[in-house]
């Protein structure tokens, strides 16, 4: 599926089909960044009656959400699901007409490729921290020595948590390194493409962080969190996809924005951001400048740091310290008859300690019924390569990444057939890292930004890397700038 929904400079120059929207909020807001956070902000702003211009530096909207196809089969080349029990993504999908296309994944067990073979993902854990050791012992993921270490959690004195601590360090202190290396690492890596021994417990697993500050046993804390989650959980699915791919979501939001009068430009990098008065901003592009009453900065940290360097050096310094992980997704299409012996699961995770090239594999046509129905005689699976601090394999060219993925798949599941098509999607600086101290860093950034009326920031580096969190971040930024708009302000049209 080509990106036929992206806006163009020509469309923006003519104001879009619906014309500029005006309403009770008044004022002109420029949103810098056309990923799902920026689009969510623009959608909320337009709904409140603001006149909105959205500027995206790349030729395509959607950021890390990208639906396309391989061998005629629709696929996601980025994120493929949303957490359904957090409401923002599902609600937005329904608002933009995709409610009937929401579909949960097939109920298939996930596995871990570790200690020489595929092993069932043990149930009853919180991001790898077991609330019940029984399923973990039955899975074979942890050795006998590793299992013998875990019960010490019940007798060790409380591990002090002063401010923040790395997930890996804290869990290892309570349960031993094997739990971290073979269970926590691959699960956290699947979310952040990061290293558990660097990722902040406070930012990544806040429920465990709060429990660790007051309790002693980590196992009991995990059990209590699971019990509360079960009591509050509804009957709906935990995750949802969208028929045709999650990458349809940003395009549908963009269409809704245009219908509301939002002007969208792609291939429009912002070069400079300046205040022009107590309630004014100027956004400079290569060929012109736009005057605005407010700005939502929905750009990655390096871009945000550059744009805020003059107006907020302190925020820019913190933004400049944000690190990102690069990764690649290898999407492979096979004849269905070549995958008859594929295990009955949705895929597997790979602990980095096992030294494999791939970090995970998703059996996409098994996991997503909509894709299986659309694939005919073809089945699709994908692998991921690279994580923060372990990106050497990304130096291989595309053909070699396909070859290395196939070698690991042959060893893991016995798949030796040649794919009918292969595609490598590289996400350089794809995911912001949440190291120890990240929550405080975000608080400092927001404190400095709040000193500049009419400016708000949003995106994956602030409130979570998941799609609902990114949407919520964009909607929060929209609410912040709407509160600062001066009633009746017109916002200049620029030069």
Strand content: 15-25%
What topology, given as strand order, has the largest sheet? 8-7-18-19-20-17-21
For the residues shown, what is the average pLDDT? 91
> Could you name the ranges where pLDDT drops below 50 across 5 or more consecutive residues?
1-23, 488-495
- How far is it from the N-terminal to the C-terminal residue, by CA? 36 Å
Share of helical residues:
25-40%
- The gross shape turns out to be globular
SS elements, strand count: 22
Which class of secondary structure composition applies to the elements? alpha+beta
Main β-sheet, in a few words?
Answer: 7 strands, mixed
Name the assembly state. single chain
Individual helix count: 19
> Radius of gyration, rounded?
23 Å
Walkthrough of the structure:
By secondary structure, the protein is of the alpha+beta class. About 35% of the residues lie in helices and about 20% in strands. The chain contains 19 helices and 22 strands. A hairpin with a 2-residue loop joins strand 13 (about 270-275) and strand 14 (about 280-285). The longest helix is centred in the middle third of the chain and has 16 residues, at about 175-190. It is globular. Mean pLDDT is about 90; it is low at about 1-25 and about 490-495. It catalyses: coproporphyrinogen III + 3 O2 = coproporphyrin III + 3 H2O2. Its cofactor is FAD. Keywords: Cytoplasm, FAD, Flavoprotein, Heme biosynthesis, Oxidoreductase.
List the helices and strands and how they pair.
Layout: H1 9-13, E1 28-32, H2 36-47, E2 51-55, E3 67-70, E4 73-76, E5 82-83, H3 87-95, E6 102-103, E7 111-114, E8 117-120, E9 125-126, E10 129-130, H4 133-139, H5 144-149, H6 167-175, H7 177-192, H8 201-204, H9 206-214, H10 218-232, E11 239-242, H11 248-259, E12 263-265, E13 272-277, E14 280-284, E15 289-292, E16 294-297, H12 301-308, H13 313-320, E17 324-335, E18 347-349, E19 358-362, H14 364-367, H15 369-374, E20 378-385, H16 398-413, E21 421-432, H17 438-449, E22 455-457, H18 460-463, H19 467-482
Parallel strand pairs: 1-2, 1-16, 2-12, 7-18, 16-22
Antiparallel strand pairs: 3-4, 5-11, 6-11, 7-8, 9-10, 13-14, 14-15, 17-20, 17-21, 18-19, 19-20
């Amino acid at each position: 599926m080509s990106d036929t929904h992206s806006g163009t400079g020509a469309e923006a120059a003519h104001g879009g089909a619906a014309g500029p929207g005006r309403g009770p909020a008044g004022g002109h807001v420029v949103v810098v960044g056309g990923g799902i956070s920026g689009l969510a902000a623009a959608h909320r702003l337009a709904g409140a009656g603001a006149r909105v211009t959205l500027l995206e530096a790349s030729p395509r909207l959607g950021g890390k959400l990208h639906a396309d196809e391989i061998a005629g089969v629709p696929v996601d080349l980025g994120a493929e699901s949303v957490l359904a029990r957090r409401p923002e993504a599902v609600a937005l999908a329904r608002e933009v007409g995709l409610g009937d296309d929401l579909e949960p994944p097939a109920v298939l067990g996930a596995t871990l490729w570790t200690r020489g073979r595929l092993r069932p993902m043990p149930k009853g854990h919180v991001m790898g921290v077991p609330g019940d050791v029984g399923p973990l012992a039955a899975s074979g993921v942890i050795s006998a020595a590793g299992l013998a270490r875990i019960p010490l959690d019940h007798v060790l004195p409380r591990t002090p948590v002063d401010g923040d601590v790395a997930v890996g360090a804290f869990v290892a202190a309570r349960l031993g390194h094997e739990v971290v290396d073979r269970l926590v690492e691959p699960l956290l890596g699947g979310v952040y493409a990061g290293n558990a021994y660097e990722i902040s417990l406070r930012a990544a697993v806040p429920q465990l962080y709060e429990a660790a500050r007051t309790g002693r046993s980590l196992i009991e804390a995990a059990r209590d969190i699971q019990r509360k989650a079960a009591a509050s959980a509804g009957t709906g699915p935990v995750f949802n996809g969208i028929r045709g791919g999650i990458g349809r979501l940003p395009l549908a939001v963009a269409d809704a924005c245009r219908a509301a009068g939002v002007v969208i430009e792609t291939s429009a990098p912002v070069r400079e951001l300046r205040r022009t008065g107590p309630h004014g901003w100027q956004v400079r592009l290569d060929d012109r400048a736009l005057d605005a009453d407010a700005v939502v900065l929905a750009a990655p940290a390096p871009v945000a740091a550059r744009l805020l360097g003059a107006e907020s050096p302190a925020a820019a310094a913190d933004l400049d310290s944000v690190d990102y992980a690069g990764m690649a997704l290898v999407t492979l299409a096979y004849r269905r008859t070549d995958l008859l012996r594929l295990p009955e699961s949705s895929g597997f995770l790979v602990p980095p300690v096992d030294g494999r090239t791939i970090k995970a594999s998703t059996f996409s046509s098994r996991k997503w019924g909509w894709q299986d129905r659309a694939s005919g005689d073809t089945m699709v699976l994908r692998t991921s390569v690279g994580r923060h601090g372990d990106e050497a394999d990304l130096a291989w060219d595309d053909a070699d990444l396909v070859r290395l993925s196939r070698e690991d798949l042959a060893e893991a599941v016995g798949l030796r057939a040649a794919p009918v098509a292969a595609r490598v999607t590289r996400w350089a600086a794809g995911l912001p890292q949440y190291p120890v101290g990240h929550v405080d860093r975000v608080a400092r950034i927001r404190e400095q930004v709040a000193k500049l009326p009419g400016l708000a920031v949003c995106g994956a580096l602030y409130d979570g890397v998941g799609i609902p969190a990114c949407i919520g971040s964009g909607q929060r930024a929209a609410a912040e700038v709407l509160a600062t708009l001066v009633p009746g302000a017109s916002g200049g049209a620029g030069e």
